[in-house]
Write a structure and sequence with these properties.
Elements lengths: L3 H14 L20 H18 L6 E2 L1 H17 L12 H7 L8 E11 L6 H9 L2 H7 L6 E10 L2 E16 L1
Parallel strand pairs: 1-3
Antiparallel strand pairs: 2-4, 3-4
Helix pairs in contact: 3-4
């Protein structure tokens, strides 16, 4: 028979070595991106973002096709032209790209944001990217910004220095103010 003290120690040790339950409800969070599963990886990213937001009682993000188009084009450009930056080689910023995708017009009220990442292996999964973003104060702030309502994810196979490895991610966030 175990004493109460032994049970408490065993429970504490179990808690220390138990696997994390964070993001447990997000199918596809551990998929390494391939040509055939990019939609699943995007869905997992949306789920992970919304789990983080739900923990803070924030409204869920909805995927928006125009933000996704801007994000996908930027991930593609970074891999093709071998750079990693919020500002494209030609000088366009994420605001320029989102305006060009017609998510908002220059004369509307809006708030916009962008997160970037690239990784290989487990670091190229939705969970790996999300963990990296949440470990960065600036990226975390973008994810949990209360005002954002929409998001679009762009995932391009390949990384800025090698189009045969990993994946490059762009997340564009926005809200159109009335």
């Amino acid at each position: 028979m175990l004493s109460r003290r032994t049970c408490v120690v065993a429970l504490l040790l179990g808690a220390l070595v138990a696997p994390s339950t964070a993001y447990a409800d997000c199918p596809g969070a551990d998929l390494v991106p391939t040509p055939g599963n990019l939609a699943e990886v995007r869905e997992a990213l949306l789920c992970l973002h919304n789990e983080e937001r739900a923990e803070r009682s924030l409204p869920a993000l909805k995927e928006h096709a125009r933000l996704r188009r801007a994000a996908a084009a930027h991930s593609e450009d970074m891999v093709e032209r071998r750079y990693f930056s919020h500002t494209a080689r030609g000088g366009a910023t994420f605001v320029d790209r989102i305006l060009d995708a017609r998510y908002v017009s220059r004369f509307d009220g809006w708030q916009l944001g962008e997160n970037l990442a690239w990784g290989t292996g487990a670091l190229a999964t939705a969970r790996g990217v999300m963990d990296a973003w949440m470990d960065s104060p600036d990226h975390r702030h973008t994810i949990v910004r209360r005002s954002y309502r929409d998001v679009g994810f762009g995932i391009r196979l390949g990384v800025p220095h090698d189009d045969g490895l990993g994946a490059t991610f762009t997340a564009n966030f926005g809200v159109r103010e009335k």
